[in-house]
Amino acid sequence: MPHIKNKKVTFLLSIMAISLLGAFGFAFPALASGAPSGTETTEALYFGNDIGAIICLVIFVCSYFLVLVEEKTHLKKSKPVLLGAGAIWVCIALIAPKYGATHEDVRNAVHHGLEEYSSLLLFLLAAMTYIAALEDRRVFDVLRMKMVEAGFTLRQLFWATGIGAFMLSPIADNLTTALVLGAVVMAVGAGNTKFIVIACVNIVNAANAGGAFSPFGDITTLMVWQAGKAEFFEFFTLFIPSLTCFIIPAAIMHFFVPKEKPAALTEKTTMRQGAKTIIGLGLLTIVMAVSFEQFLGLPPFLGMMTGLSLLMFKAYYIRKFGQDKDEDFDILDIVASAEWDTLLFFFGVIFSVGGLGYIGYLDLASHTLYGEMGADFTNISLGLISAIVDNIPVMFAVLSMNPELSHFHWLLITLTTGIGGSLLSIGSAAGVALMGTASGYYTFFSHLKWTPVIALGYIAAVTMHYIVNGHLIHM
User: What is d(CA 432, CA 346) in angstroms, rounded to the nearest whole number?
Assistant: First the structure.
């Protein structure tokens, strides 16, 4: 890992903190006058000029600062955001009654965040458990062996995993895609730090780009589709911009991938009992997650949890009736060893941002941006902000404001919030999940090194959208 001087770290973190404050700061001139006209106050209050609300914003920035320096402090990223989330909602509970909110109102707002988090938690838990089960059955070890025996170089593997991420994420989703291919990279890389870092950055960017042109490739695209802002097949007009976002950074990073082949294997390995069945159950689980949403109107996590139950039954069969009777293969043990730091980090982020949304910062920022800055500037800027603040609350704020936008601009905000998260490792679920899967290799600062390259892809994708889909501006 290259050494980063303290002055450079401080400078970068200061710029990010100022950017975050600036995103909300657009709204400060309007705070004293209360809620913007035409908005509902049942879900969010507007007391951003209160000292307690400003303290909440400072808490959020400070907790994120500690996340960014995890590599230096070795303080797990979940700890500061969990504390920050609790402190933010305590402040809200103390000051909200002054602005007409009851404790029941605040409790309902917390439960709204809990609904969002529980869906993400259960989806992630099932996906991570399947990945761990496949690792236990030596699936990734065998895959690595096959790739090494086939004579693939690290550069060829770099492209194979990147293209796989881009093509798989529209079908499954960017999070599951990153987890699966990240595990492959860790197995193939076998301790090659440089390759693992570049491959993980490429996977995150490819998965986010691929998810942007599919209604169920990302939670934000699903939100736009369900809100009726774009028809199902309209999303596919984003294919060329999304492909551009993937190809340009990958083509640049290609020259920095080591030319050598993966380390030679000293011994053969075979998949353990039940591996092929578990692969099939994993694919079936992805199909169920998509089908539950598309055909039954059920949340995707329900399909994932149903698939997890099938994995549990298979593990039970292996323990009791399998040829080898592997009594150590217990799915609940795998669940217990899941990447809980990542799962709890999502809790802290969702509840922290949810608190800022309840105060009114997100709605006010969105209202002021669209009202005064215009749709083009705002949509592109919100994509950049989504690299710091998760794209889900950003998109939720836009949809709740419901600005009058053309199909072109609804597709633009879908594209920018989808690919903007690739600029930082904490900007998307795919990046955060990979920081857990590739812990010790893929970190915030190792991704930050490639942010300028990812930014070129972001600019190129937005430009391509204007070229390819410009005729939709007036529709």
Answer: 9
Residues 182/437, Cβ–Cβ less than 8 Å: yes
**pLDDT confidence of residue 310:** 96
How confident is the model over 97-112, as a mean pLDDT?
90
- Give the residue from 141, 67, 93 showing the smallest Cα distance to 342: 67
User: How far apart are the C-alpha atoms of 428 and 211, rounded to whole Å?
Assistant: 11
Task: Kindly write down the DSSP assignment for every residue of 338-374, as one continuous string.
Answer: S-HHHHHHHHHHHHHHHHHHHHTHHHHHHHHIIIII-
- Model confidence at 94, in pLDDT bands (50, 70, 90)? very high
Residue 217 has pLDDT above 90, yes or no: no
For residue 72, pLDDT over 80 is answered with no
Rounded to 5 degrees, what angle do the CA atoms 176, 178, 184 make? 110
**Contact call for residues 251 and 147 (beta carbons, < 8 A):** no
d(CA 205, CA 200): 9
Question: How does 400-438 read in b/e, with b if 16+ C-beta sit within 10 Å?
Answer: bbebebebbbbbbbbbbbbbbbbbbbbbbbbbbbbbbbb
Confidence tier at 475 by pLDDT (50, 70, 90): low
* CA dist., res. 67 & res. 382, Å (int): 21
pLDDT at 14 over 70: no
Element (H, E) at 255: none
Average pLDDT over residues 451-470: 95
- How many beta carbons lie within 10 A of that of residue 19, not counting itself? 15
Q: How many residues does the chain have?
A: 475
What pTM value is reported for the model? 0.70
Could you give the CA distance from residue 202 to residue 447 in angstroms, rounded to a whole number? 10
Task: Quote the distance between the C-alpha of residue 104 and its chain's center.
Answer: 31
Ramachandran bin of 374, using left for φ above 0, alpha for ψ from -120 to 50, beta for the remaining angles: left
Q: Do the beta carbons of residue 346 and residue 101 sit within 8 Å?
A: no
CA neighbor of 285 nearest in space, from 304, 271, 272, 301: 304
Dihedral (C-alpha) 208, 212, 218, 219: value to the nearest 10 degrees? 130
Instruction: Tell which residue, 256, 254, 261, 259, has the closest CA to residue 145.
Output: 261
Amino acid making up residue 224: V
| DSSP states of 426-464 | GGSHHHHHHHHHTTTTS-HHHHHTTHHHHHHHHHHHHHH
For 140-190, what is the HEC assignment? HHHHHHHHHHCCCCHHHHHHHHHHHHHHHCCCCCHHHHHHHHHHHHHHHHC
Burial of 340: CB neighbours in 10 Å, binned 0-12, 13-18, 19+: middle
